[in-house]
Design goal:
The protein has 610 residues and is of the alpha/beta class. It contains 26 helices and 19 strands. The strands form 4 sheets. The chain has a 7-stranded mixed β-sheet with strand order 9-8-10-11-13-12-17, sandwiched between helices.
Length: 610
């Protein structure tokens, strides 16, 4: 497909010169461009296809970057990137664009976003800053309906509704986050969504009356005074208006003409407005419309069929799901909780086999953690399966609700360590420092699926906050001579001059490096609290190297070094950890850059043995 209109756009404002037919054609070109590029590299597809018309309408009505558009999460920002002059070839790969808004890429991205429910807070702050500076420019926040299960959205709306700012919140309602939306807010939006006829009737009536010469404006003014009466025929109440927002909608999110008229009206109101837009996730590509969860974040695929180019169900996530099902079959107190990540965390089978013990709480990690503590207080054995990057949002709940008066809660931390294409906002390199600061936590880091099962069994059999963390990966092969016993640690004695310490998937890298150098290897399974026996093993060596997929401050390596020093160790101790934020690139390359791959380990050992 030729992209004649896209190629004719020299600057973002050129969109405003197009008529409705040309705008619809532009949307077709954008969909084709997104499909073409994402099929090659992978990325967030369904959410982007569903937001094409909305993005075009936003840029038609508002003047970015002077009137900034703040995206919630940013899963749906690919059209925005293209329209603001960026080439999405190689998106989410090293040296390509980020899959999320990123201010270092463009002046049109004012705020980074990789987590949900942040957009209204950020947009309100920007709007207040503009007001102080004397500007009456609008600020737009685009939030998905899935993010409305996050409490931060309501905190922001409570604040924004009483502000005197030109804030426009666009609620992109597609009935989905990653998994289908759940909860009372999802039901409420479904109720409003079913009454789209009210808005269409009102919008078309206004449009028609204002075209009538002489008397049209008068008739419209009279009818407008009866707005409340007509509105109450359709809505008994409107939650958003109770927050202080003027509510417009619901509007068809794939009707460019209606979107432009609605957004213009919102812009003219000059106070907080919420525009409710209905869209179809995956719009325009049949496989993604039928399976939006599968095509939310997708690996490279064949565009003609929608089949993945390298389809594999083998991963720590899938192994975790299988193990939890097996354990739940034997223990009817085991419950599983997820925050809108049923498929991502491997819990789909559990949700179908044990629906009464499965809880998808929506995008609400803070609630999920305290809810888990409540289940534990009620005598159940909950496990909260969550990505490392999203657990960051529930620090206080782990500390205050699960640890001070210890509750037996198991946390399964998925995507621990380096994650690849999602980049800085999603790296799982901060949970270790966060969790080791909380008294009483126990942390396991398995290196293969058998160890994962053993660690989960230990976690469910113990008390207090028990944590099992594992990577976005499948289990890795290791040299045959490294036979694990699956205790709290495995010690492989080699050259008495040098000891390599590590855990998780880095054990495979260390084992291959040790096979070539004959270094000793200490693989830790239960990484925290650190057993004194491990310190005694390390004290025997002149050179000790700790390799870890975590930032250094607060890492297991740092805790280990402190204990080693207190024990009187006077040899050489080196920490090899992740430095700072890791941008989007392959896991393997990131490990190489940060000195965590087998060659880096091998070179460190060789240097020690000189």
């Amino acid at each position: 497909m030729e992209h004649e209109i896209l190629e004719s756009l020299k600057q973002t404002s050129d969109i405003k010169k197009l008529n409705i037919d040309r705008l619809n054609a532009l949307c077709s070109e954008l969909r084709d461009e997104i499909l073409c590029k994402v099929s090659e590299t992978g990325g967030h597809l369904a959410s982007n296809l569903g937001a094409v018309e909305l993005t075009v309408a936003l840029h038609y009505v508002f003047d970015s970057p002077d009137e900034p558009i703040i995206w919630d999460v940013g899963h749906q920002c690919y059209s925005h990137k293209i329209l603001t002059g960026r080439d999405i070839t190689g998106i989410r790969t090293e040296n390509g664009l980020s899959g999320f808004p990123k201010s270092s890429e463009s002046e049109h991205d004012l705020f980074v976003a990789g987590h949900a429910s942040t957009s209204i807070s950020a947009a309100l702050g920007i709007a207040e800053a503009k007001k102080i500076a004397g500007s009456d420019n609008s600020v737009v926040a685009v939030v998905g309906d899935g993010a409305c299960s996050g409490g931060m959205i309501f905190e922001a709306m409570n604040n924004a509704g009483r502000s005197q700012t030109n804030l426009v919140v666009v609620l992109n309602d597609n009935e989905m986050s990653i998994s289908p939306n759940v909860g009372a807010m999802a039901k409420y939006l479904a109720k409003i969504r079913s009454k789209e006829g009210y808005f269409r009737f009102k919008d078309n009536l206004e449009h028609t009356l204002l075209k009538i010469p002489f008397i049209g404006k008068g008739i419209y003014s009279v009818l407008r005074s009866a707005k409340t009466f007509f509105k109450d025929m359709f809505y008994s109440s409107n939650t958003f208006e109770h927050f202080g927002f003027t509510y417009l909608g619901p509007a068809d999110g794939h009707d460019i003409d209606m979107l432009i008229r609605t957004l213009r009206r919102a812009k003219s109101i000059k106070k907080p407005v919420l525009v409710h837009v209905n869209t179809v996730k995956g719009k325009g590509y049949e496989p993604s419309e039928k399976m939006p969860s599968k095509f939310h974040g997708v690996a490279p695929f064949y565009r003609e069929s929608g089949e993945l180019k390298k389809e594999s169900t083998d991963s720590f996530s899938s192994a975790f799901g299988n193990i939890i099902c097996k354990l739940a079959e034997k223990d009817d107190k085991i419950c599983a909780i997820t925050a809108a990540m049923t498929d991502g965390t491997g819990l789909r089978d559990f949700s179908e086999k044990y629906p009464e013990r499965f809880f998808d709480v929506g995008i609400a990690e803070e609630h999920a953690m305290t809810f888990a503590a409540g289940l534990a207080a009620g005598g159940m054995k909950p496990i909260f399966a969550v990505y490392s990057t999203f657990l960051q949002r529930a620090y206080d709940q782990v500390l205050h609700d699960a640890s001070i008066e210890p509750k037996h809660v198991v946390i399964g931390i998925d995507r621990a360590g380096i994650v690849g294409g999602d980049g800085e906002t999603h790296q799982g390199t901060f949970d270790i420092p966060i969790l080791t600061s909380i008294p009483g936590t126990v942390i396991y880091c398995p290196s293969d699926y058998n160890e994962l099962e053993n660690d989960l069994l230990k976690a469910f059999s113990a008390d207090g906050v028990q944590i099992v963390r594992y990577p976005r990966d499948k289990e890795r092969d290791i040299p045959k001579k490294f036979v694990k016993e699956y205790g709290d640690f495995d010690y492989f004695e080699g050259n008495p001059e040098c000891l390599v310490i590590t855990y998780g998937r880095l054990f495979a890298e260390a084992a291959f490096a040790a096979e070539e150098t004959d270094a000793s290897v200490l693989k830790i399974g239960k990484v925290f609290p650190i057993e004194h026996e491990l310190i005694e093993i390390a004290r025997k060596y002149k050179n000790v190297y700790f390799f870890e997929e975590s930032v250094e401050f607060g890492s297991i390596a740092e805790h280990f070094g402190n204990m080693l020093s207190k024990a009187g160790f006077d040899g050489k101790y080196e920490i090899h950890c992740v430095s700072g934020f890791v941008p989007h690139m392959s896991v393997e390359n990131a490990m190489k850059i940060h000195g965590l791959d087998r060659n880096s380990i091998k070179n460190a050992v060789k240097e020690a043995l000189k």
